[in-house]
Design brief:
CATH class of one domain: Mainly Beta
Strand content: 25-35%
Distance between the termini: 55 Å
Number of helices: 12
Mean pLDDT: 97
Radius of gyration: 21 Å
Shape: globular
Structural class: alpha+beta
Length: about 400
């Protein structure tokens, strides 16, 4: 551990408080990959493991898959192309060097997980457990949010089913979903939900306990650092979904004693039946107040919660931008090329598109330079409590 501490301190001093990260590719075996992540086509299919459907970013969360692979989902710090050690190990050894002493006292690690997910079909209708239920299986809750980038094909089913029709919650007719879970034969459970179109440069906020079936758009996601879920849909476009995934994060005794009825307890019926679900969860980009400079502008793209937040930075060709933030964050260079505090970055260049910015460097500020002929687009990801000024949607109620 002392060796990791010394290496980390040396890297941070040498690289002005910035760490370069390797991509963390994650396979899933329930829906085929959309093959829009930028890998060669031959690399997506992994046999019994399924296919590469996700890329996790600045991740300290191991993937929880049927076929277990060592370190899947974890990000590694690398220097000159060679992996040094995992970000999880670095934060366990010397969190104060990355997160700052004060933030490290109150947070076990970064406590958020950015990712890109890319599926050929709509995902099954599912939920992520709220904290009270996730803790029963030794996990944490999973609130999440989505942003749909502008320049990627949307796929064949670009709409997401959310929640349930309001009358189900208003009349407490929760058992209307039960027969679908017991029979486990088709996708007709979706008739009880409402679909919203996925549009480029748009997004949604999805609290834990919310039923949702994300559409086929390639999605930038930011979430709490957890991989818990329960699938409630038996088929997707004719593809069978194993019923084991209904109980993936359910205690054996709860499955034995309550069966499918237990899954209904995991649902936040108030949020799911909200007649103003769209108005209260739809999160289009919002300009960050005071961020406009001659060279660029920042937008909030992940907001409406204090559990995480995120921004999109756009720097114009030939221009530079002075970026200053309130704490540790990571970036993904999405499009364009340039320098980030002197470090080369380029979208879709997997050795040069992902960085972690330490607390002290974020506070002191970095210079972002666009060296290309198109906009340099960067996504910035923050953990809980870092951005006190994160905006919230106006609350609509009946």
């Amino acid at each position: 551990m002392s060796d990791i501490h010394d290496q980390l301190q040396s890297l941070l001093e040498k690289n002005r408080g910035i760490l370069r990260l390797s991509p963390a590719w994650v396979a899933r075996d329930f829906i085929p990959p959309g093959k829009r992540l930028g890998l060669p086509v031959s690399q997506y299919n992994l046999g019994d493991r399924g296919g590469i459907c996700e890329r996790w970013l600045s991740s300290t969360t191991p993937a929880d898959n049927r076929v277990s692979v060592e370190n899947e989902g974890l990000s590694f710090i690398h220097e000159n192309g060679d992996a040094q050690f995992s970000l999880k190990e670095a934060l366990a050894t010397a969190p104060e060097l990355i997160m700052g002493s004060e933030y490290a006292r109150d947070h076990a690690d970064l406590q958020r997980l950015p990712k890109i997910f890319d599926y050929a079909e709509r995902l099954p209708y599912h939920i992520h457990q709220m904290e009270e239920h996730a803790q029963l299986v030794g996990c944490s809750s999973k609130e999440e949010a989505y942003y749909f980038p502008e320049d990627v094909p949307m796929g064949g089913s670009p709409d997401t089913y959310f929640g349930v029709h309001p009358y189900i919650s208003e009349r407490k007719q929760y058992d209307i979903l039960l027969d679908h879970l017991v029979q486990w034969k088709d996708e007709s459970i979706l008739k009880h939900a409402r679909a919203f179109r996925q549009l480029a440069d748009d997004g949604f906020h999805v609290p834990a306990g919310t039923l949702h079936a994300p559409g086929s758009a390639l999605t930038i996601e930011l979430q709490e650092a957890s991989d818990v879920f329960a699938m409630l849909q038996a088929k997707v476009s004719g593809i069978p979904i194993s019923k084991d995934l209904l109980y993936k994060d359910v205690r054996p005794e709860d499955q034995r004693d309550k069966g499918e009825n237990y899954i209904l307890e995991l649902i936040n019926w108030g949020i799911n039946g909200d007649p103003y679900f769209y108005e209260n969860r739809h999160t289009p980009p919002i300009p960050v107040i005071g961020s406009e400079q001659e060279g660029g502008l920042e937008y909030w793209i992940f907001y409406n919660t204090h559990k995480f937040s995120g921004k999109k930075l756009i720097v114009s060709p030939g221009c530079s931008y002075e970026s200053r933030d309130s704490g540790v964050y990571s970036i993904l260079a999405w499009r364009g090329k340039g320098l980030f505090e002197g470090h080369p970055i380029a979208g879709q260049d997997f050795g040069n598109d992902e960085l972690l910015v330490s607390h002290s460097t974020a506070m002191n500020g970095v210079k972002v330079e666009n060296q290309g002929e198109t906009d340099l687009i960067i996504y910035k990801f923050f953990g809980p409590g870092i951005n006190a000024d994160v905006p919230f949607l106006e609350r609509y109620t009946t």
